Amino acid sequence: MSTSRANRVLEHRFGRYGGQYVPETLMPALAELELAWTQARDDPSYRSELDLLLRDFVGRPTPLYRARRLSERAGRTIYLKREDLNHTGSHKLNNALGQALLAKRMGKGKIIAETGAGQHGVATATACALLDLDCVIYMGSVDTRRQAPNVQRMELLGARVQPVEAGARTLKEATSAAIRDWVTNVADTHYVIGSVVGPAPYPALVRDLQRVIGDEARAQLLEREGRLPERVVACVGGGSNAVGIFTAFLADTEVQLIGVEAAGDGIDTNRHGAPLTVGGRAGVLHGALSAVMQDEEGQIVEAHSISAGLDYPGTGPQHAHLRDSGRARYEAVTDAQALAAFKALSRLEGIIPALESAHALAWTLARNDGDLDLVCLSGRGDKDLAEVLAQ
Amino acid sequence: MSTVQVSGIERIAAAFAASGKQAALMPYLMGGFPTLADSVGIGRACVAAGADLLELGVPYSDPLADGPVIHEAATNALAAGVSLAGVLEVARELSASVPVVLMCYSNMVLAPGAGLFVERLAQTGAAGLIVPDLPYEEASEVLAACDAHGLALVPLVAPTTPPERLVAIGARARGFLYTVSVVGTTGERAALAERFAEIVAQAKGCTQVPVALGFGISTPEQAAAAARAGADGVIVGSRLVRAAAENDDSAAAVGEVVGELARALAT
């Protein structure tokens, strides 16, 4: 095993975070996945097939939009990276499509995935319909109720939605249920994890598939403004849109990277989803060591956010490392602030953002300094109308 | 225990050697389910009915290796306020009469630091530790801590584990090699005995310690089949946790099932 470790191309650790804390049954599958990805990502036939689909099916490159009225309100220039304009309405399809294509290449005919808000579930169901793969989506039964239209979409796309009744019946339990399914059906099944979380190689694999966001945005901004942004702002649950947009700017040390977590009712309450902001002891959740919400004994505690996609007690290991190293900064925005930003963008720009993305907008709207912010508008907010109107 | 210090690793080895059965019998019980007091009663009933070792589970919020029966028992125990300290007291009570191997997920082991966790466990007199989500690559720190206290860090191998990996894991096994009999989580299954011989033979070929078969074994027939396949030990979990859940006198109910399993393993 020492030779395979020496030959490793994908990161297993980001600083001290990451790793593979999973049942032994899955270890060979993780090694198989790592090998398959290192071969696929350098294979022109995989790359060209994915690039063509990203262009013609997903709609990439997504626009970089200078938000005029929002900029006036903020007193500085704000650019939005319009991931909401992707097919299926969020950045999630970048990853789901790449992984589904990889699964096909690996000869795995069955796909499983977890979803919270339903964005990743819809993206995965879409990719499976396109590529003719069998698809099961695990979703907490609280989320199947509060995101009912997305359940209907997934079923229309041919996926089976499996409600999860354990625990708080939200994203954490849906992820655990998907991992248990994978433990049982690993021979013919690929698990399309939806964020930069999970055991290695997933955080690096999903990063590779989402970095297109930042690669595009950086080039687009240079072309438009002839300069880099002062700050890059993105919401962080598991953190895939944030890693996706941050990656292109990691070497630009003058660019500040801001991850915005869910403060829920407030980070001084127990009802939030902000493990990076709050700090505390690192812990293991869903196969990786990272920032996690846990009690003294190491029991994982439930998160809370108005946004189902940020309602998660863990986060990607690379974010924990970026925080510790000082390269990125993490702050949190409350449900109320996110709701206000949701409404502000709708009225000022005619764009209804996802509640997740509204957290990033709320952060930037609360600043009174700076001259050029690039904000990742990770998804659109149609799915959130019922939730917002009920407030 | 006598004044002569016997390490956990030695106690486990002795229990396998002295089982007097075709294979040693290792029931699993969930600590604090239905209650902490019940757990002590269940453990004693297991010993009275012929158990050679006990596997004691620590309830955890996110048990990725467990099927629905054990998951639900853990959820109920946590809802009732069961803490690690409470389960360690169960381990202390039971360790006086039988080697106890604690099964605990990695985050709870790492939360206080592996060294401190293992020290607390060693102080109960427990014999070993199983961490079902701590594979070979991640286990060095916990293994060193266990070795320092004479506790057996028992690794798992699965039917999916390739041969060269089996050799690496087997060489570093302490106490016994926990050999997962099926691709899947814990839980009762109808028929699975046809692959036992192959799985056990592969495991035995790569380690010096006894090989115990677990996951999915619930009936006396399956236990006997595991022994016939050459397993040195048989682990039964979900069937017993279900017996504890379904009966008012949980200790008697679990003891009865363990008795049936022990008779099936009699020479």
Account of the protein in words:
The complex is a heterodimer of chains A (391) and B (267). In chain A, helix 12 links the parallel strand 9 and strand 10. The N terminus of chain A is likely disordered. Chain A is of the alpha/beta class. A 6-stranded mixed beta sheet of chain A has the order 3-4-14-9-10-13, with helices on both faces. A 4-stranded parallel beta sheet of chain A has the order 7-6-5-8, with helices on both faces. A two-stranded antiparallel ribbon of chain A has the order 1-2. The N and C termini of chain A lie far apart (54 Å). Chain A is 44% helix and 18% strand. In chain A, helix 6 packs parallel to helix 8 and helix 11 crosses helix 12. Chain B is α/β, with parallel strands linked by helices. In chain B, strands 5-4-3-2-1-9-8-7-6 form a 9-stranded parallel beta sheet, sandwiched between helices. In chain B, helix 10 links the parallel strand 8 and strand 9. In chain B, helix 6 runs parallel beside helix 7, helix 10 runs parallel beside helix 12 and helix 11 packs antiparallel against helix 12. Chain B is globular. Chain B starts with 7 loop residues before the first helix and ends with a helix. The model of chain B has no long low-confidence stretch (mean pLDDT 95). Chains A and B meet through helix 2, helix 9 and strand 11 of A and helix 3, helix 5, strand 6 and helix 8 of B.
